[in-house]
Write a structure and sequence with these properties.
This protein has 387 residues and is an alpha/beta fold. The chain has 2 domains: 193 residues, Rossmann fold (3-Layer(aba) Sandwich); 176 residues, Rossmann fold. It contains 15 helices and 13 strands. The strands form 2 sheets. A 7-stranded parallel sheet has the order 3-2-1-4-5-6-7, with helices on both faces. A 6-stranded parallel sheet has the order 10-9-8-11-12-13, sandwiched between helices. The two termini are 26 Å apart.
């Protein structure tokens, strides 16, 4: 590992390489001012997704990447100790000026490994706290909140929250005093997108009938995203509007269950399960409506991609999503798991699009440009790194 150029800050990032957490780090590594920072990324490989895997060649132009297979999400004493020792050695070797940990697990291991390592600044981005997760019992949530409280108060310079809602949850749990938290929205670059017709062609859907309306989602088929509510909403809407077509781009451990539901309910002509695509952020342009049915979130990149494409959103009223969606401006919200309300909101957007009452593409894009560009995100992070 080479010595950084004089005047550069040594930055060590510790993270899980998947989902919004992985994407956030990709954007930081590629977009940060490389004249000011020498970057090393230690990343868990257990749940690495295709987006991160495909981003590695570009990231390697700007940073030293170090895979740590033992950095896993689940509690595992053996793996956790090995990951801690690996990161501890890295800290001694690199002598970082700045440590930035992403995700709850990496936050615990990375911050504790820095104890006594003379790291000047330690930052943490949870990307949704573990105690927000639906699958944990209340006793586990209290334990996770206790850990976050100890680590925030004694081992953290500042926590970056991806939404005000996430920050408020931390304050409600008395994790730390308000000035220890800073809201930094996920941001994405403004890139050229295909036309709707080209996006439909790329998806293999250019032969949809005249008047077809496309309701889509680019999402992992995992419990957090509640894809069964997505297809149940599809069934309810298609029963009343056979020109409605629902598109799901993504894969995950629930894909077989989702596919069975589609087949069992005779929805195969109207519900299109297209699997993972590495151009998901571009083909969102094919959608007339974006539908996200998550049980909980930090701040989902997919909704920001929808705004950038000028596509109105229907999403569950959860932390993060409810800061992206501005009712009657760029979409509507509905209660988690409420199929009837979700279907009504989808139909409402379709009706308002058809009459031209709301949701012009330019107006929706304006809500992206106002708060969710990558430069805004990078400026905010770098300001804290250098402050």
């Amino acid at each position: 590992m080479t010595e950084p150029m004089e005047g550069k800050k040594r930055l060590l990032i510790v993270q899980e390489a998947m989902g919004g957490c992985g994407r956030n780090v990709v954007d930081i590594v590629n977009g940060i001012d490389h004249s000011k920072f020498d970057v090393t990324v230690a990343y868990g490989t257990n749940r690495i997704d295709d987006y991160y895997r495909n981003a590695i060649p570009e990231m390697e132009k700007h940073a030293t990447l170090i895979p740590i297979p033992e950095l896993v999400r689940d509690l595992s004493a053996g793996n956790d100790i090995k990951a801690w020792l690996h990161i501890r050695r890295l800290i001694k070797q690199i002598r970082p000026d700045i440590l930035h940990c992403h995700s709850s697990k990496a936050g615990i291991i990375g911050r504790s490994a820095a104890v006594g390592g003379h790291v000047s600044k330690v930052f943490y981005t949870p990307h949704a706290y573990a105690f927000q997760a639906w699958e944990f019992s209340e006793s586990k949530k209290r334990f996770f909140a206790f850990l976050e409280r100890v680590f925030s108060r004694f081992l953290t310079t500042r926590t970056f929250n991806v939404s005000n809602g996430e920050r408020n949850i931390a304050l409600q749990r008395h994790i730390d005093r308000p000035d220890k938290f800073k809201v930094v929205y996920n941001g994405i670059p403004d890139v050229a997108l295909p036309s709707r017709e080209e996006a439909l062609r790329l998806l293999g859907l250019s032969d949809l009938p005249d008047g077809a309306v496309v309701v889509g989602s680019t999402v992992r088929l995992a419990k957090q995203k509640d894809p069964m509510t997505f297809v149940r909403i599809a069934r309810a809407v298609v029963e009343r509007n056979p020109l409605a077509h629902f598109v799901c781009v993504g894969d995950g451990d629930l894909q077989d269950e989702v596919a069975r539901f589609v087949a069992d309910n005779g929805l195969s002509d109207n519900v299109h399960l297209l699997g993972y695509r590495d151009d998901a952020e571009l083909i969102v342009k094919a959608f007339d409506v974006y539908l996200l049915t998550s049980l909980y979130e930090g701040l989902p990149y997919s909704l920001v991609e929808s705004l950038r494409a000028g596509v109105p959103i229907v999403a569950t009223d959860v932390t993060g999503s409810n800061e992206v969606v501005r009712p009657e401006v760029n979409g509507y919200l509905f209660k988690v798991g409420d199929v009837k309300a979700g279907a009504q909101q989808v139909e409402r957007v379709i009706a308002e699009l058809s009459t031209g009452d709301r949701f012009s593409s330019d107006a929706i894009r304006a809500t992206y440009l106002e708060r969710f560009t990558s430069q805004r995100m990078l400026d905010s992070v770098q300001e804290s790194y250098l402050g």
